[in-house]
Amino acid sequence: MKKFLALVLASIMCLSLAACAAKTDGDGDKEEAKGSVYYLNFKPESDQAWQDLAKTYTEKTGVPVKVLTAASGEYNNTLIAEMDKKDAPTMFQVGNQGALKTWGDFCYDLSDTDFYKEMTTDDFNLKGENGEVLAAGYCYEAFGIIVNKALLAKAGYDLSDIKDFDSLKKVADDIHARAAELGFDAFSSAGLDSSSSWRFSGHLANMPLYYAFRDDNVTAQPAEIKGTYLENYKNIWDLYITDSATTGADLVAATGDMSTAEFKEGKACFYQNGTWEYAGLIEAGLKAEDLAMIPIYCGVDGEEKAGLCCGTENCWSVNKNASEEDIKATLDFMYWVVTSEEGTTLLAEQFGPCPFKNAKEPENVFFAQANKYIEEGNYVVTWAFNYTPAVDNWRAGVVDALAQYTAGKGEWDAVKTAFVDGWATQYAGENG
Amino acid sequence: MKKKRDYTAFNSNLIRRPIKRCVWLFLLPTFAAFCIGFLYPFAKGLFLSFCKYITTRNWQWVGIDNYIKAIKDPSFLHAFWYTALFAIVSLIFINLLAFMIAYALTQGIKGSNLFRTVFFMPNLIGGIVLGYIWSLIFDGILTKFGTSLLLETKYGFWGLIILMCWQQVGYMMIIYIAGLQSVPESLHEAAKIDGASKWQTLIHVTLPNMMPSITICTFLTLTNSFKLFDQNLALTDGRPFQMVNGQTIKTTEMLALNIVNSFNENLTNRGVGQAKAVIFFVLVAAIGLIQLRATRSKEVQQ
């Protein structure tokens, strides 16, 4: 009996090995003739939409399109692993300068393609040293302070009462002081758990970076920063952690879900986040007419004319090392996505406004607001944090210092050190 | 009655010989799996530790540069000493506790089996889950005092010790119970007749006869501590940090986590992470072998 079992087990193993081998053969067959597309998508929430779109395209043209979606937060690791394979992705994302440094050698110059000619702006594209278009920003996003106007009215204020940092602080301080009576507080919790901390080490930190870079006309990744506007960063951070129901050491492990829930349940009037939150807020029962997004004010001169922070980390690149047919198939697919009915619908639904001639208007009110600020002549706060060297590392350092400061265990100087010295260290590490 | 020889029986030579001849066929799947899953990655990893690379196909030979960088990296050195300290402290605590519980549970008290099961159970929970649950427990207590697990190194250290004790004591206890039960009753009786106290019996009779269990338990706890990764990641992820001369030191980061971090954080420096991993392998292998030899020599032949 034992011998028989051993035989069965051995044959199962042989079979499974054979099965693996057979599978690779199958993959090889597909690659004939016209070339194929392999898209590595990095937004798990839009995976299904891409899979459906890929199917539609294949039905229409016969060109096989494979879409693989990396698990949340695993995009970089997945990209490295996939790029190592023989059938590497032909189309992938390069989100910022740091990524361009790593993956620039893999990027095909898009400037001569039909796809590129459909674009309406160069603002969100990432370029190489000689001006070649290496990554094309296919949509943009905006962040700021999301306001529940209904609650604001309940407290006796209106959006027009908030024009700069001082007026924001006045309103927030007043709401916080009357929190018990009103039943809600000013800001939702500024948690420093990793599910929430990126809002501050990434997005909020954009404010001091943006103003410093604007002063110095920075157009490439700087080796070091001075931290001129860190006092402003402190202003707004202090406001977040004072005028809120959750303060002090409790914030160290507070999560993003907690903060979102507070805003959704009407327990907080202000919530710093971006356009991507819109669908979730509407689903939770908030009304579109009650929602608004205002710029992040932090006490910089002339900030009454600030707009929302607009930018993107969604940039498509085409793999230069893919075969010629595959590159052509990929470019055709990209062109189709930004021109066809199906493609533009997907982009508008999943990503909001897109810089293409045939793009559709999204429903999201936050984007309407971003555009309104621009139309009124306010300046766009661009995503200066896209220059951050070794971004995860740098942010981790800032978050840790912020946590110490917030819990009352450390000084603000430590945040400065993490911010300024940390930048220089990470830059040296990445370029040394 | 004389037993008739059955030439068609399964264990007869007639059947066995052809099977024996096919020994390589039976070994092949496991051997192939071993090559694919261990030998090849190990060899390639060793090779890549001498290279600069982003994807493993496009490498560039840089010699021992990576090793020099790895040894000079202050975060790596910090992680090494921190891990060593952790290993020693957890070795002592886990083994003492496990032995004490095992001893108590072999004294014939009521419900021993229930206790054994309960103590063993934490071992069945995965490290990541444990880490997050314990971080909730610790933070729940510490926030009452206006602090958090992530704010002070000492909390992170002792938190991890408590977690590891909770998880591993049950497993080591099972091994110690087996060891305690294997000591022949006659030795205990002889000691009793000679007038030895309970304590003397334990030290001079029971313990020397349990050396195999002690060997295996110290070996397991020591290497477990050195290789610890998921609990470390989930509990503190290296926080709090410290800025020393512009370098960020993650004060509760252990070796394995440090290697993974340096591998992922800076894509242009993956070779250094690889070099660290090779050093780590040599270290763990060496410690394991030395330790095994040291305790083996104390074993008593029954």
Blueprint (SSEs and pairs):
The complex is a heterodimer of chains A (432) and B (302).
Chain A: H1 2-30, E1 37-41, H2 47-61, E2 65-69, H3 75-83, E3 91-93, H4 97-103, H5 114-117, E4 126-127, E5 133-137, E6 141-148, H6 149-154, H7 165-177, H8 179-182, E7 185-187, H9 194-204, H10 206-216, H11 230-242, H12 256-264, E8 268-274, H13 278-283, E9 291-294, E10 306-311, E11 315-318, H14 324-339, H15 341-351, H16 365-375, E12 379-382, H17 391-406, H18 412-431
Parallel strand pairs in A: 1-2, 7-8, 10-12
Antiparallel strand pairs in A: 3-11, 4-5, 5-11, 6-8, 6-9, 6-10
Chain B: H1 13-21, H2 23-48, E1 51-53, E2 59-61, H3 65-72, H4 74-105, H5 112-120, H6 127-142, H7 153-182, H8 185-193, H9 198-209, H10 211-227, H11 230-235, E3 241-244, E4 247-250, H12 255-265, H13 270-296
Antiparallel strand pairs in B: 1-2, 3-4
Helix pairs in contact in B: 3-13, 4-7, 4-10, 5-7, 6-7, 7-10, 8-9, 10-13, 12-13
Largest sheet of chain B: 2 strands, antiparallel
The CATH superfamily of the largest domain in chain A bears the name Periplasmic binding protein-like II
Share in helix of chain A:
40-55%
Radius of gyration of chain A, CA atoms, in whole angstroms: 24 Å
How many distinct domains of chain B? Answer: 2
What's the helical proportion of residues of chain B?
over 70%
- Widest sheet: strand ordering of chain B: 1-2
Rg of chain B: 25 Å
Characterization of this structure:
- With 432 residues, chain A is of the alpha/beta class.
- Chain A folds into 2 domains: 33-140 and 312-357, 3-Layer(aba) Sandwich (D-Maltodextrin-Binding Protein, domain 2); 142-311 and 375-431, D-Maltodextrin-Binding Protein, domain 2.
- Chain A has 18 helices and 12 strands.
- Chain A has helices at 2-30, 47-61, 75-83, 97-103, 114-117, 149-154, 165-177, 179-182, 194-204, 206-216, 230-242, 256-264, 278-283, 324-339, 341-351, 365-375, 391-406, 412-431, and strands spanning 37-41, 65-69, 91-93, 126-127, 133-137, 141-148, 185-187, 268-274, 291-294, 306-311, 315-318, 379-382.
- In chain A, strand 1, helix 2 (47-61) and strand 2 form a beta-alpha-beta unit.
- In chain A, helix 17 (391-406) packs antiparallel against helix 18.
- Chain A starts with a helix and ends with a helix.
- Mean pLDDT of chain A is 88; it is low at 19-32.
- Chain B is mainly α.
- Chain B folds into 2 domains: 13-48; 68-296, MetI-like fold, CATH 1.10.3720.
- Helix content of chain B is 70%, strand content 5%.
- Chain B has 13 helices and 4 strands.
- In chain B, a hairpin with a 5-residue loop joins strand 1 and strand 2.
- Chain B is globular.
- Classes of the chains: A alpha/beta (432), B mainly alpha (302).
- The A-B interface holds A 1, 3, 6, 10, 13-14, 17, 76-77, 80, 83-84, 101-102, 194, 248-250, 252-253, 390, 392-393, 396-397, 400-401, 403-404, 407-409, 414, 417-418, 421-422, 424-425, 429-430 and B 10, 15, 19, 25-26, 28-30, 32-33, 54-57, 135, 139, 142-143, 146-152, 237, 239-241, 243, 246-248, 264-269.
